[in-house]
Specification:
With about 160 residues, this protein is mostly helical. The chain has two domains: about 5-65; about 75-145, no CATH class. It has six helices and no strands. Helix 1 runs antiparallel to helix 2, helix 3 (about 75-95) packs antiparallel against helix 4 and helix 4 (about 105-120) runs antiparallel to helix 5 (about 125-150). This is DUF1468 domain-containing protein. Pfam families: TctB. InterPro entries: DUF1468. Keywords: Membrane, Transmembrane, Transmembrane helix.
Length: about 160
């Protein structure tokens, strides 16, 4: 049995591994039944579906021929760094770092920081489009999480709101 598409095989393997990990992790919670779902029901179901999807992609990668074998390219270290750095910066901006005395900067500034840093991962960086995307995401997040879901989290930096 020869792998016809390396990209599909390893993508399927990643999906199956993450799905199984979530499914196994969800069993530590009360699963319940379909009529009376517990907190572990949805993660278990989602993990199983993801694992099945990953398995199907792996089978397809062995069965369906591709022209060049769809080889895996080099690791995109620059993109990985900027995407992870943007997410870490968002977490720090949202919650602050009390250990060094950095107060929370809030949801809005956190989203702007995330979008600006993560946008550096792309091939092109245009300030107007990056700021437009950050604005749309900040407004949408405010309405979804603060207004609609009534979540309690800092929206603006504490030195502004008091």
């Amino acid at each position: 049995m020869k792998i016809q598409s390396q990209k599909d095989f390893f993508a399927g393997l990643m999906f199956a591994t993450v799905g199984l990990a979530f499914a196994i992790g969800a069993t530590t919670y009360t699963v319940g039944t379909g009529a009376r779902m517990g907190p572990g029901y949805f993660p278990l179901l989602l993990g199983v579906v993801l694992a099945i999807l990953g398995g199907a992609i792996m089978v397809e990668s062995v069965v369906v021929k591709t022209a060049d074998g769809a080889k895996i390219g080099k690791w995109a270290w620059r993109q990985i760094f900027f995407i992870l750095a943007g997410n870490v910066l968002f977490g720090i901006a949202l919650g602050g770092l009390p250990s060094i005395g950095l107060p929370p900067m809030g949801l809005i500034l956190g989203i702007y920081a995330l979008v600006i840093v993560a946008s550096k991962a792309g091939q092109e960086f245009h300030w107007p489009s990056v700021l437009a995307l950050a604005t749309v995401l900040a407004v949408g997040s405010y309405f979804a999480f603060i207004y609609a879901l009534k979540l309690v989290m800092p929206v603006w930096p504490t030195f502004i709101t008091g």
